């Protein structure tokens, strides 16, 4: 692999980024990004891609929307989903409450993003 | 006798547009405000948009839909701005009398100093009507499916085909996949997607879901429940090429074929509707051609970014507050025309001499063009644009000085080589 074309997912602009690699597959240059976060995204995406997961979680009173507080490794996304779907919350939930401390061993929290729907 | 109350500012719809407008009006000193919302909570469509990607412009952080809405709900509560839930506005007339109803009050009328329309939009069901075959269960609009999954916790199906590659369809492709469904493909009639590039990346490519451009669903199969669909490639006139037809087994078809502003009330007030946007024709302050009635958010034109909705709502609120306080505008009277490549602009009229941002969409993908504003064939503004796409709303700002140069009360916004 000499180069890789990416669509940045950091913001709605969706910049087209080109990553150039040297002979050993190390990143040589990143082109086409328009902000620092875009550059970081491109590097992470080519080394150990990560994603934020947003989903819902069951509670006693109904379901709440949740998100991972930060990104988790892309290959763990379904493991994360699995743990979230297996977890039941029995108490009241407010926006911002931590519902899982360390989801699927990623070291990342899961927090509520809505009240009970 | 129908009960009638008086309010300085009445806002129809408690989504991000309505709430942002209310908060901005309050912050400009207005106190006599009332928000009317037909749902059982404030927040609008954002309540079901649990994915992240909202608020980067506005708050500098990536929020989910409910979190973005919550920021405004907190402000509405903090300012004690009055709102009524489960209250449906059923009529508005040109003298700014609203008719509304709810269980507690029955039918009642409100005499408003100014009205802000913020009713949002609904999904286009059209896609369904032109497809041959049976009418089994398992066909949903993407937004309805989103509501089921995200707010009720039901899964509409296990094997899914999505027609239309707008953002809602893309977001739902990922959402259904995360919840264990298999999304067979997303079919898009046009040769390009109407969704944001980032959503194609993170919602389809992440899960190897094929995006079939220039493809459509030509038949739905199944008696009680969908058993599959026939899809086919389309030619440049968007007609299916029959020998490319193939059957795809699935139990669910989601339609993501665009949004239409919800403008029944706007029409009932006699407000002129723009044929391209399906929203009201407005000036820079988002005032319609019926005095004292303003519009913002998705009811005015479809936005992909809620940050722009809030921005527009604030412009609109300032206009409404100025109107209530009797501040005259009308120093200018300029119509804005477009060349078709630029499909529309909001606003479409300029009535004030001040720096004004035009929001616009284009009809196709264009590269390395100049966005040009002309007055009587003279170029008064020209901006280089690297890439313009129909799915992405663009802006251009015209300064007060440039507006002063305009002749004959008309400008044309176009794309030039
Ligand atoms: C599926 C989907 C995904 C999206 N994804 C993103 C994204 O990733 N990032 C982003 O920035 N933006 C996104 N958006 C866009 C953003 O959510 C919308 O632009 C925004 O919600 C529009 O706000 P609004 O207030 O104009 O309309 P709405 O949110 O639709 O609110 C309108 C409100 O008016 C009420 N109403 C309507 N008629 C009446 C009546 N007659 N009487 C009383 N009340 C009435 C409705 O009940 C509703 O609450 C998405 C939108 C959708 C649909």
Tell me what the structure shows.
In chain A, the strands form 3 sheets. In chain A, strands 8-5-6-10-9 form a 5-stranded mixed sheet. Chain A has a 3-stranded antiparallel sheet with strand order 1-2-3, covered by helices on one side. A two-stranded antiparallel sheet of chain A has the order 4-7. Helices cover 19% and strands 35% of the residues of chain A. The termini of chain A are far apart. Chain A folds into 2 domains: 3-47; 54-112, CPE0013-like fold. Chain A contains 2 helices and 10 strands. By secondary structure, chain A is α+β, with helices and mostly antiparallel strands. Chain B has 3 domains: 1-123 and 259-329, 3-Layer(bba) Sandwich (FAD/NAD(P)-binding domain); 125-257, FAD/NAD(P)-binding domain, CATH 3.50.50.60; 330-417, Immunoglobulin-like (Sandwich), CATH 2.60.40. In chain B, α1 (16-27) packs parallel to α3 (65-78), α1 packs across α9 (306-324) and α6 (167-178) runs parallel beside α7 (197-204). The mean pLDDT of chain B is 94. In chain B, the strands form 7 sheets. In chain B, strands 1, 2, 5, 6, 7, 8 and 20 form a 7-stranded mixed sheet that branches. Chain B is 23% helix and 35% strand. Chain B is an alpha/beta fold and 417 residues long. The relative contact order of chain B is 0.13. The interface between A and B is medium-sized, with 28 and 30 residues. The site of flavin-adenine dinucleotide has 39 residues of chain B, from α1, β3, β6, α5 and α6.
């Amino acid at each position: 692999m000499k180069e890789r074309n990416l669509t940045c997912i950091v913001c709605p602009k969706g910049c087209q980024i080109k990553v150039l690699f040297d002979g050993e597959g190390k990143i040589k240059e990143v082109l086409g990004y328009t902000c620092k976060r875009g550059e970081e995204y491109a590097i992470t995406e080519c080394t150990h891609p990560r994603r934020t997961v947003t989903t819902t979680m069951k509670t006693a009173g109904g379901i709440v929307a949740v998100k991972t507080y930060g990104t988790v490794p892309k290959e763990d996304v379904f493991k994360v989903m699995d743990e979230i779907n297996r977890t039941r919350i029995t108490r009241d939930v407010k926006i911002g409450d931590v519902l899982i401390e360390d989801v699927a061993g990623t070291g990342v929290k899961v927090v509520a993003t809505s009240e009970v729907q | 006798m129908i009960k009638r109350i008086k309010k300085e500012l009445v806002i129809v719809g408690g989504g991000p547009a309505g709430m942002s407008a209310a908060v901005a009006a309050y912050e400009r000193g207005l106190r006599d405000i009332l928000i009317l919302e037909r749902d059982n909570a404030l927040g609008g469509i954002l309540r079901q948009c649990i994915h992240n990607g909202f608020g980067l412009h506005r708050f500098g952080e990536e929020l989910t839909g409910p979190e973005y809405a919550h920021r405004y709900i907190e402000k509405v509560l903090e300012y004690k701005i009055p709102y009524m839930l489960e209250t449906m506005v059923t009529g508005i007339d040109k003298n700014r009398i609203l008719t509304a109803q709810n269980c507690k009050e029955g039918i009642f009328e409100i005499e408003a100093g100014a009205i802000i329309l913020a009713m949002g939009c609904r999904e286009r069901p059209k896609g369904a009507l032109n497809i041959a075959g049976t009418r089994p269960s398992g066909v949903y609009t993407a937004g309805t499916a989103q509501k089921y999954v995200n707010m009720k916790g039901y899964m509409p199906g296990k094997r899914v085909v999505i027609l239309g590659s707008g953002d809602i369809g893309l977001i739902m492709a990922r959402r259904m996949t995360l919840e264990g469904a298999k999304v067979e493909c997303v079919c898009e009639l046009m040769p390009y997607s109407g969704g944001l590039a980032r959503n194609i990346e993170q919602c389809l490519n992440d899960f190897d879901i094929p995006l079939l451009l220039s493809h459509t669903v030509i038949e739905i199969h199944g008696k009680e429940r969908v058993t599959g669909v026939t899809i086919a490639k389309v030619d440049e006139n968007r007609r299916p090429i029959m020998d490319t037809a193939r059957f795809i087994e699935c139990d669910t078809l989601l339609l993501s074929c665009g949004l239409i502003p919800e403008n029944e009330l706007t029409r009932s007030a006699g407000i002129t509707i723009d044929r391209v946007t399906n929203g009201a024709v407005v000036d820079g302050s988002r005032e319609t051609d019926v005095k004292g009635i303003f519009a913002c958010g998705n009811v005015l034109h479809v936005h992909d970014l809620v940050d722009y909705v809030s921005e527009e709502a604030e412009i609109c609120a300032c206009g409404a507050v100025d109107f209530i306080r009797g501040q005259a505008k009308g120093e200018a009277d300029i119509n804005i025309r477009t060349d078709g490549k630029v499909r529309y602009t909001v606003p479409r009229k300029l009535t004030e001499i001040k720096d004004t941002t035009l929001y616009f969409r284009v009809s196709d993908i264009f590269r390395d063009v100049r966005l040009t504003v002309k007055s009587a064939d003279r170029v008064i503004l020209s901006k280089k644009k690297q890439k313009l796409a129909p799915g992405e709303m663009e802006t251009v700002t015209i300064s007060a000085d440039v507006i002063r140069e305009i002749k004959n009360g008309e400008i044309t916004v176009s794309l030039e080589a």
